Amino acid sequence: MKHILVLGSEGFIGRHVVTAAIQQGHHVYGVDIADKMPAAYNYEKLSLLSADIDLFLSAHPFDIIINCAGSGNVGFSVQHPLTDFDLNTRSVVFILEAVRKHQPAATYVHVSSAAVYGNPHTLPVTETAQLQPVSPYGYHKWMSEMVCREYAALYGLRSAIARPFSVYGPGLQKQLLWDLFQKASRQQEIVLWGTGEETRDFIFVEDAANALLRMGTLETGTSTVYNLAYGQPVTVRHAAGLLMESLGWNRTIHFNGEVKEGDPRFWQADISAIRAIGFEPSVSLVEGFKLTAAWLLSLKESQ
């Protein structure tokens, strides 16, 4: 049994990491800024952009610290780049400085993003590909990775960096599937961004959570980077049709041909590195979309 801290424990990925860690028998502590009722794990409300995180880590020892906190909204980063920098880069400095001072033996798992790749020149994209972000969010995630490398190189902190691609599943109330569901709930004809031929590499959130926990158990390496995806490209058009099929809805879907600011065009990950440490995605796209559709329908029925 490990003592695991999940930063951003009330966010989409963080909640699933907490659940997976509890199921695996670990002792779990969560930190976030949300008010919540007592749950099946210890929780504390605090800001990562304050001295509170320093005090917290001085009082509670952990084997693994998984950082799922920060903003994951590309559009928000375009409109509010300074706030996005605070949430995705500056906060990491606060965290790692506290780890350096109080828990240098802990393994720090950092959730970055495939947005650091921008529009890669070749596919599938490997962890050694040139980084060329196309949004403030992508740049700030790149900067956060550099902070991890700084603390690994200069202070010997053990860390692992995850670059998730398109994480989806129950609980995600934004991005393609959520937006499509909201539109399809109101109208028969739907217009989406792009041409429909853009590709995404989807990974079900439970798989992503298990991968992050696996990364936290590694005993060697500093600031090792892992792509987090299924390893298969899926067009936005196919994903949209599959969601409608999973919902049992018949809708006409059009694409406006316009590129949404900050969005990449084509994504496919090489997942050889994460496979080499014993992780294999287990939830297929069809199964994952069915589970997501069931959750979406349950929300609609409860309204």
From TrEMBL:
The family database entries (InterPro entries) matched by this protein are listed as: Epimerase_deHydtase, NAD(P)-bd_dom_sf
- Give the top-rank taxon of the lineage listed in the UniProt record for this protein: Bacteria
User: What range(s) does the NAD-dependent epimerase/dehydratase domain occupy?
Assistant: 4-229
One Pfam match, by short name? Epimerase
What family, per the record?
Belongs to the NAD(P)-dependent epimerase/dehydratase family.
Name of the protein described by the UniProt record: UDP-glucose 4-epimerase
Q: Which organism is it from?
A: Algoriphagus boseongensis
